[in-house]
Each structure stands twice: as structure tokens, then as C-alpha cells.
TrEMBL record:
This is Vasohibin 1. It comes from Perca fluviatilis. One of its GO terms (biological process) is regulation of angiogenesis. Residues 307-321 have a biased composition (Basic and acidic residues). Residues 1-28, 267-335 are annotated as: Disordered.
């Protein structure tokens, strides 16, 4: 029974991370995601305030005070970073991190933008545009999507998801940042409650050095780093229908020696370099792009599957071509 229970807890952790939840628990209660889009519907809005009332020391009184106030200060909207031709890549990355930080970390316990990791890149980039338009506080996974969008016009900068699973007082916590790599140096963009668990300048010579930097930060908060998940480089094409490969390598840090961890990270670095030379699948045409992978697309919308005819060897195709028109009456090719 204990083995089954532990297995189900680990599976639930994986499912929650795949759905984009930063932690298994936030403030001791489940972490919510706004799945109804914006503007926030009444049910989600009330649930958020009930959640605030539970997790804040003066939550109920504070919530009432804010909701009835008529003279709340206007929150400034951060300006999307712009660059001069003379700005270096490190300066541009720092400007992006400054913008992400100015959006502020979302402490409400309700993530405002639903990030489904299975969506194609073009759909996630649409969500990034919505995040900039709404200028609401964000959590770590939203910051990763935003970081990808804002670095798409930097072809020399390679980006990859870098996520961590840590443990403290028997509870598992998940966090993710956007790793960046250029000119033999690694760094990271992101957002967190903790200053040293997000932005890292481009000064780490290896992926091992970057991971160890985050591991040291976790130790400073009495967290034990259990797992590191590293994805592949993300396409720079904002209209790509590729899915982000979030977990190309999953490393059990507590089960690997330092040398074994180094070798695994070096292997992953080689894998990422190999992907650079591989051509990406073509982007959809303008007409198809509007209907493919949109965040507003209904959950029941059919997903195109490759026809079996398209996968057949050329010899079998010739057999099909010889069939009479009568035999083909009931046969349709899906496009």
C-alpha cells in the first residue's frame, strides 16, 4: 500500500508539472489555474478571493478592504523592452529580465494564463502576446513562455526549458526557468519568489556550472534538489507548429555522483547542439495558422493525423493507384 501511495503521489506531481503548475502546494493549499480566459469569470474570481482569505494572515479583512475600495492606486504598465543596435546580447537579456520582474510575481494563488505544454509553439506565442497586453502578475511557467517570445528575434541565442524538483519538509516543489546559451556561456531568465532562483547572467561556462548555481541557491533555503529536467532548444520561428520538448533529459540529482551528473549534462549539451543543424518542419500557411493551435480553440476540436496513405512505402502506393474508381468510392484522404 505504501509503494502504491508513493507512486501515485509521484505521478500526480508529474501531471501537475505537465499542466504548468509551479508547485505541488502553494501556501499549504492546492495551486489554481484560471482556465476560463480573460476577463476572469465570476466563479474563478470568487475562488481566487477565497484562496487569498485562507493563505493571508489577514486575508478575509484584507480582501474586503481591497474589494470595496474606490481609490486604489493605478498600477503602472511596464514597457516592453526595445533595443538599440549597439546593445549587446547580455544587455538585451537583462532588459527582458527587468520587464519580467516589473510584471511582478503572482502571489494570489491563481495563475491567470493557462499554459498547456502540449500546445504548439505558435499557440504559446499567442499567449505571450496576451500576457504583455494584459500586464498581469505572472508565475514561473508564464515567465518562460514570455522569455521565449521576447528572445525570438535573437537568432544567436539558444533557449531551453530548465526545471527543478526540490523537497522541503516532506513536500515536493516545482520550479522552471528559461535557460539561455550563446558563445559558450549559459544563463537563465525567469521569475520566482526568491531572487536567486530566476535570472542568471551569461557567465557560466558549462550547463553543470549553471545547475550547480541553482542547487546552491536551493540549499540556502533548506531545500534538497531531487530532479533536474532539461528540454531541447526551442525554435525561433514564432509560427512553428512544433511542440516544445520540455523533458529531453530527466536527472535524479540525489542518485548521481557529481561526476555522473557532469557527464549527463555534457551529453545533453551535445544533444542540444546536434538539434541546431536539423531543419524545423515548415510553418503553416497564413490561412491555416489562424485556425491551428489557437488558445481559443475548443478542447474537442479534431487534431490532424497523418493519413496512413502518406506513411506507406512507394510500392504500396502504386497498388492503390491501380484500383478502379468503384473501389475508391468509400475511400477518403483526410487533409
Amino acid at each position: 500500500m505504501l509503494r502504491v501511495t508513493m507512486g501515485s503521489v509521484e505521478q500526480r506531481d508529474e501531471e501537475q508539472e505537465d499542466e504548468g503548475e509551479e508547485e505541488l502546494r502553494d501556501g499549504g493549499v492546492p495551486f489554481y489555474v484560471n482556465r476560463g480566459g480573460l476577463p476572469v469569470d465570476e466563479e474563478t474570481w470568487e475562488r481566487m478571493w477565497r484562496h487569498v482569505a485562507r493563505i493571508h494572515p489577514n486575508g478575509e479583512a484584507l480582501g474586503k478592504e481591497i474589494r470595496v475600495a474606490s481609490d486604489l492606486p493605478k498600477i503602472p504598465i511596464p514597457s516592453v523592452p526595445t533595443y538599440q543596435p549597439t546593445n549587446t546580447i547580455p544587455q538585451r537579456l537583462e532588459a527582458i529580465q527587468k520587464y519580467i520582474r516589473e510584471l511582478q510575481y503572482n502571489h494570489t494563488g491563481t495563475q491567470f494564463f493557462e499554459i498547456k505544454k502540449s500546445r504548439p509553439l505558435t499557440a504559446l506565442m499567442d499567449i505571450a502576446k496576451e500576457m504583455m497586453r494584459e500586464a498581469l502578475p505572472i508565475k514561473c511557467l508564464e515567465a518562460v513562455i514570455l522569455g521565449i517570445y521576447l528572445t525570438n528575434n535573437m537568432p544567436g541565442v539558444e533557449r531551453f526549458p530548465l526545471s527543478f524538483q526540490s523537497q522541503f519538509s516532506g513536500n515536493n516543489f516545482h520550479h522552471i526557468v528559461l535557460g539561455v546559451h550563446i558563445g559558450g556561456r549559459f544563463g537563465a531568465l525567469g521569475i520566482s519568489r526568491r531572487e536567486d532562483l530566476m535570472f542568471k547572467p551569461l557567465e557560466f561556462r558549462t550547463l553543470m556550472d549553471l545547475v550547480q548555481e541553482f542547487e546552491g541557491a536551493y540549499r540556502g533555503y533548506w531545500h534538497t534538489l531531487r530532479k533536474v529536467r532539461i528540454g531541447q532548444y526551442v525554435s525561433h520561428d514564432p509560427h512553428s507548429v512544433e511542440q516544445i520538448e520540455w523533458k529531453h533529459s530527466i536527472l535524479d540529482v540525489d542518485k548521481l555522483t557529481k561526476e555522473e551528473l557532469r557527464k549527463e549534462l555534457e551529453r545533453h549539451t551535445r544533444d542540444m547542439r546536434l538539434k541546431i543543424g536539423k531543419p524545423a518542419p515548415p510553418s503553416p500557411t497564413k490561412d491555416r495558422r489562424n485556425s491551428m493551435g489557437s488558445p481559443l480553440r475548443g478542447p474537442s476540436s479534431p487534431i490532424r493525423r497523418i493519413s496512413r496513405v502518406e506513411r506507406r512505402p512507394s510500392g504500396e502506393k502504386k497498388v492503390l493507384e491501380q484500383k478502379s474508381a468503384t473501389d475508391m468510392n468509400g475511400y477518403q484522404i483526410r487533409v
